[in-house]
UniProtKB/TrEMBL annotation:
InterPro entries: Dimeric_a/b-barrel (IPR011008), Rham/fucose_mutarotase (IPR008000). GO terms for molecular function: racemase and epimerase activity, acting on carbohydrates and derivatives. This is Rhamnose mutarotase. Pfam families: rhaM. It comes from Lentinula aciculospora.
Amino acid sequence: MSISHPKRICQIIKLKPSAVEEYKGIHAAVWPGVLAALERAHIMDYSINYYPPFRLLIATMKYTGSNFEADMKAVSEDPETQKWWAITDGMQESFVEGAQGSGQDVPWWTEVEEVFRFEGKSQ
């Protein structure tokens, strides 16, 4: 897959009520190895927001590489990221039927369709 501009991605998942503070705490100090794996995979401008009424985590990011599938496979094979997911997946509830966790064949997070984008005028 070759892209000429960043691919923007939005994903959602539920946060377990008992895990809110722990999830926020671990994300206040994300492990350097996890961030390095994302950077190697051409992920940038990554953020996760939380909407408490629906216990909804909303992740947005930009992918700037040229082979998304291969880069995501590399992230899923990263040992530090696998350890991270072993902790964070237990705090989440997937919307995807049959999902067993991050980095598996069935997606853990649900990708959300973009229906509008405004980037403003270039100056």
